[in-house]
Amino acid sequence: MELDDLKKTWNLIDEQLKDKELIREEDISRLITKAGSGIAGLSRLLVRGIIAAVIILGIVSAIMLMDQHFDWFFTILLIVAVPALAWDLFTVRYLSQTKMDGMPLVEVIGRINRYYRWVIIEEVVAMLLVLTMAVLFFIDRGIWHLSTVSVLFFFGLWAVAIGMLYWIYQKKAIHHIREIRKNLNELKELQEGA
Fold this sequence. Notes:
- Helices cover about 90% and strands about 0% of the residues.
- By secondary structure, the chain is an all-alpha fold.
- α1 runs antiparallel to α4 (about 150-194).
- The longest helix is centred in the N-terminal third of the chain and has 66 residues, at about 1-65.
């Protein structure tokens, strides 16, 4: 009688463990897929930004060449844009080399954390650059001499530019990175619990 009870208990525990392992493997697979698609999504976001920047720079350059007037504002914009595009190309390559299935989890987490720090620094530098350009433009063009409506339009236009920049960084890039980091941390906990 005891042997039969022991066998039933053993079989019951064995079935529960099999179900638990199956759920854990499904969770791990789901998290790997979500993190991998998140990294690919960040890469696509950067590529779209590069394409948009190249188009805008092309239009600005064409306007400058047709007018044969090289304004300091657009010249500085072009000088800053080239290293920024090079940086974006570097980060696209960095993200494309971050493989969920070909790297240890610790290395992937390290790479994503490093990229997160880069994005925070990039956001601060971009905001400072936009504010500097706005102040220089305000001073150079003597905006304060214009009508009140023109001054308000100037501040509104630059506020929209800064707001869009903030939105792109916070809602697009940093939100994606946080989701990836959350998935990677859950994956790490599941693997440590295994």
